[in-house]
Amino acid sequence: MYIKGKLALLVLIGILCGIIITLISGLFSYPTGKLLGIKKWGYPFYWLSQVIYPGATKNVNWSNFIIDVLIWSISAIIVLKLFEILIKNLRK
């Protein structure tokens, strides 16, 4: 029972970290290459975009947002697990 709770906590913390990292990535512009007239934010996939004209609203691409959250969550879970293994090995 302890292992299931520990795994659930690891996944929950990983998802929370994934959401936070994704939202932080929205502060940085996405390299658009030669596409002019559109600004994009988010990494590794842009999930926030805006056409450049006065009064334009920002549009959220929800599928890219969810993909980014998944990528960052998996990355965070891997890093957290590696830290757990490292700490466990240092205590020996």
Topology, pairings included?
Elements: H1 2-25, E1 38-41, E2 48-51, E3 59-60, H2 62-91
Antiparallel strand pairs: 1-2, 2-3
Q: Would you mind describing this structure in some detail?
A:
This protein is mainly alpha-helical. The protein is about 60% helix and about 10% strand. It is built from two helices and three strands. The chain has helices at about 1-25, 60-90, and strands spanning about 40, 50, 60. The protein has a three-stranded antiparallel sheet with strand order 1-2-3, with no helix packed on it. The protein starts with a helix and ends with a helix.
**Integer average pLDDT:** 89
Q: How helical, in percent, are the residues?
A: 55-70%
Main pleated sheet: 3 strands, antiparallel
**N- and C-termini, Cα separation:** 25 Å
Q: Helical stretch count?
A: 2
- The structure class reads mainly alpha
Physical arrangement of strands within the biggest beta sheet: 1-2-3
User: How large is the radius of gyration?
Assistant: 18 Å
**Topology as H/E string?**
HEEEH
Q: Which of globular, elongated, flat, extended, rod-shaped describes the shape?
A: elongated
Strand content: 5-15%
Beta strands, count: 3
